[in-house]
Amino acid sequence: xxxxxxxxxxxxxxxxxxxxxxxxxxxxxxxxxxxxxxxxxxxxxxxxxxxxxxxxxxxxxxxxxxxxxxxxxxxxxxxxxxxxxxxxxxxxxxxxxxxxxxxxxxxxxxxxxxxxxxxxxxxxxxxxxxxxxxxxxxxxxxxxxxxxxxxxxxxxxxxxxxxxxxxxxxxxxxxxxxxxxxxxxxxxxxxxxxxxxxxxxxxxxxxxxxxxxxxxxxxxxxxxxxxxxxxxxxxxxxxx
Length: 240
Description:
The protein is an all-alpha fold. The protein is built from 6 helices and no strands. The chain has one domain. 78% of the residues lie in helices and 0% in strands. Helix 1 crosses helix 2 (75-102), helix 1 (2-58) packs antiparallel against helix 6 and helix 4 (143-166) packs antiparallel against helix 5. The radius of gyration is 22 Å and the shape is flat. The termini are close together.
């Protein structure tokens, strides 16, 4: 039975990764490409300014720094995005499966949607209150501090939701509220400067589109996982 559950979790994660790629290609990726044009325009302008300054002072042309490797736009970029989404999808699916098994919960397509909604709240909604998705060219705080804050927020939100769902006593529910609120009282690390070449309306549209795409990913993952779990359970019962 455990083997069937693990196979179901892996398949659900792979399917969710492919689904996420389709959703992102429709709305999220075009916004990223548009933001990259603003970023490249700023970099090109800075490069020309630097080059003219160096020529005036030394009379010699400076060698341009090499660009870091990145997949080409189009099919290559979509392929790498799909591979990354599949890996992330399988990882999240295994985490969700581990939580379900640890809490000894039965799961159906309907309850799978609830588990998917919980995953969205823990891994996306709560962290995005302090660290909204960022487009290329936008300022950001220290990477290590942001990762630490994200991890603490995820753990606190998961703990708070657990107390609400499985430990329904007033003191523990109040503790759950405190856990969920605590990271936001602490505050996410912010960039020193907030100036960006990316228009504010483009950044806002990206935040909304990314959150909606993440919500669809988690609901899809939970629903498929619930369906496959239910099917595996029926197959196990039939074989006994």
